[in-house]
Amino acid sequence: MKNIRKSSQVLASLAAIAMLALTGCSDPEAALSEGSDEKSQERPTAEFNQEAADLLPADVKKKGTLEVATTMGMAPLGYPDPKSGEVVGLNPDIMAAIGEVLGLKVTMKAASMDQIIPGIQAGRYDATAANMAITDDRIKVLDFVQYYFANSSLAQPKGNPKNITADTLCDKSVGLEVGSFQFTEVMPVKSKACAEAGDQPIDVQGFPDQQKALSALDSGRVDAVAGDTPILLYAANLNDKIEVGDALTDGSILGIGVDKKSPMTEAIAAAMNDLIDSGVYQKTMEMYGVGDLAIDHAEIKK
To answer: Which one, of 101, 112, 97, 103, lies nearest residue 207 by Cα?
Structure first.
């Protein structure tokens, strides 16, 4: 597996995603969707792998479909196509390729981050590909198949008039996606540190997705946004009123999640490693400007 990168290296590799923003549009989802038809045609297709498909449970083989939950408002990783309303982006493309390896039709289902795990537990979804960090709490209820590397950063108004840094968030309002890694793990720790130091806690503002949090930053309703670095970089390169600031984490390998009771984990892992070995995975990552964040082996984390 590729070595974990330093924050500066992560930011440098993620900066390639700015090339997707040269349309000059201020709406991240609309900008990327202008080329969605062409991008769909460019997506490399994967070959069926019988050995991987043999790992599927009988009921999934019979059904022939895989229902996968993801979040909207995460351009270019997951966002609604304005023509069809379907979820498109990097996450759907990776899952579509996994489906091709396994001989399954993949259907992406939009959900907010805080709805995904309950939805999997209730049987509404077979899996999730939603940029999930593999945390101690999540691994209690889900098994994960690794699929790429990412970290978290801050975004703030251009010029940083309030001196927003990772260490100056006390008494600042920070927009976050409800249920995200930043919401459940990063900000609670930082806010607790503020209180222990005798400062005011961070004013955490929850939003349904990261794009809505960025809209609040753009309109001045929050002082900063904490989110996934690829999404923030993409948004900042479309909107000259905001900029990406400090990294909040060194980063980690994210996971495709399935229920602890599901027998799907081995099949999805086999499919991911087939995509890595065939080069389809790397080409897909490069298509979205994040080829340097690819992994060279997908491990199962339980």
So the answer is: 112
Given its phi and psi angles, is residue 110 left (phi above 0), alpha (psi -120 to 50 degrees) or beta? Answer: beta
User: In angstroms, rounded to a whole number, what is the distance separating the alpha carbons of residues 55 and 181?
Assistant: 31
Query: Rounded to two decimals, what is the model's pTM?
Result: 0.77
- The position carrying tokens 């907010």 is 112
Beta pairing, strands 65-70 & 127-133: parallel
Q: Which residues of 168-185 are buried (b: 16+ CB within 10 A; e: fewer)?
A: ebbebbbbbbbbbbbbbb
pLDDT digits (tens, 9 = 90+) for 215-250: 999 999 999 999 988 888 878 888 999 999 999 999
Domains (range + CATH), the chain: 17-150+252-301 (3.40.190.10), 152-247 (3.40.190.10)
Quick one: 289 exposed, middle or buried, by C-beta within 10 A (0-12, 13-18, 19+)? buried
Beta-bridge mates of residue 105: 65
pLDDT in tens, 137-195: 999 999 999 999 989 999 999 999 999 999 999 999 999 999 999 999 999 999 999 99
